[in-house]
Design brief:
It is a single chain. By secondary structure, the chain is of the alpha+beta class. 21% of the residues lie in helices and 26% in strands. The protein has one domain (1-307). It has 7 helices and 13 strands. The strands form 3 sheets. A 6-stranded antiparallel beta sheet has the order 8-13-9-10-11-12. A hairpin with a 2-residue loop joins strand 10 (266-273) and strand 11 (276-281). It is elongated and about 60 Å long.
């Protein structure tokens, strides 16, 4: 087993606090403290709190990003109803092992089937209690009432989560942590369930506690195979892992001194494009290619599924 180093994430853009500057007084989109009904819900649901399923929001990361809590109305899966590579974009947390793994899984047929098996959507009146995190929000809302929840299975545990997420201040709210250019909710829900599992989003922001191997075991349910990339690693070993990435999920960690890609970061491996290795950077949601020599120069390890 090869473990990606604890620091294998970008300390720059991914550790920064975009839009930082602390909280602000509620503006035109502000709400008075109290109950917030998701737009798709009727006011009558406020009277059903006694029979509603109850959820608590996991605490956010310890940062100075201005954040709200909102019901994110995205569909679970978009397009053909299956996960897709471009669904995944890493947010402000330094958790590229999770983001790169979700992208790698969504890129392969076997990974897509696994992701589909992880999440089940349920229709119900749901109340998400925000009282424990209200002081960390730009708008102090006690609870949000919505009409659905999800069961997310991580390894041997199941977590029930709502579609309430920490978002930015846009009129069409966008999650500030794991997000999706295609407005697919599934990556956000897996991250939220992971935050429930470890106690908070802040725990997901600590690379010393969640190695890539540990993340892989939780999401996939088994440990990965892998190898270190050194000067002695045969070209054929790297090329074989890249070719197999079209059917077997694979991720790669860049070196601290990487100059051609984001340093200390995790990427999904997508395959060979001619003689070049194709990668997906979850922080930018963008594909890029490297020559074999450049890959060896910039990367230190590869993890991949079995088979």
């Amino acid at each position: 087993m090869v473990d990606l180093p604890p620091q294998s994430r970008a300390p720059g853009p991914l550790g920064a606090t975009p839009g930082s500057g602390g909280t602000r007084s509620p503006g035109p989109l502000g709400f008075t403290p109290g109950i917030y009904l998701a737009p798709a819900q009727s006011a009558g649901l406020a009277k059903l709190s006694g029979s509603a399923k109850q959820f608590r929001m996991p605490p956010p990361a310890s940062d100075d990003i201005t954040k709200l809590a909102r019901n994110v109305k995205w569909t679970l899966f978009t397009g053909k109803g299956t996960p897709a590579l471009e669904d995944v974009k890493q947010g402000s947390l330094a958790n590229c092992p999770l983001a790169s793994l979700l992208a790698a899984l969504a890129f392969t047929a076997t990974g897509q089937r696994h992701l589909l098996s992880l999440i089940t959507e349920h229709k119900a009146t749901v109340e998400t209690d925000l009282s424990g995190v209200a002081d960390q929000l730009a708008e102090k809302i006690d609870r949000i009432i919505t009409g659905r929840y999800f069961t997310v299975r991580l390894k041997s545990q199941s977590f029930e989560v709502s579609s309430v997420l920490y978002t930015d201040e846009a009129r069409d709210p966008n999650p500030i942590y794991m997000t999706s250019p295609k407005q697919a909710l599934w990556p956000c829900l897996i991250e939220r369930a992971f935050a429930e599992k470890v106690g908070s989003y802040n725990e997901l922001d600590d690379p010393n506690k969640l190695t890539a191997n540990a993340v892989w075991e939780v999401v996939v349910g088994s440990s990965p195979d892998g190898f270190a990339v050194t000067g002695q690693t045969p070209d054929s070993t790297i090329q074989e892992a890249a070719r197999n990435a079209r059917r077997v999920p694979a991720i790669a960690a860049s070196k601290e001194e990487a100059a051609d890609v984001t340093a200390w970061h995790g990427f999904a491996v997508l395959g060979m494009r001619g003689t070049r290795i194709e990668l997906y950077d979850p922080s930018s949601a963008r594909r890029e290619t490297l020559s074999l020599a450049a890959f060896r120069k910039n990367f230190l390890a590869v993890l991949h599924g079995k088979g």
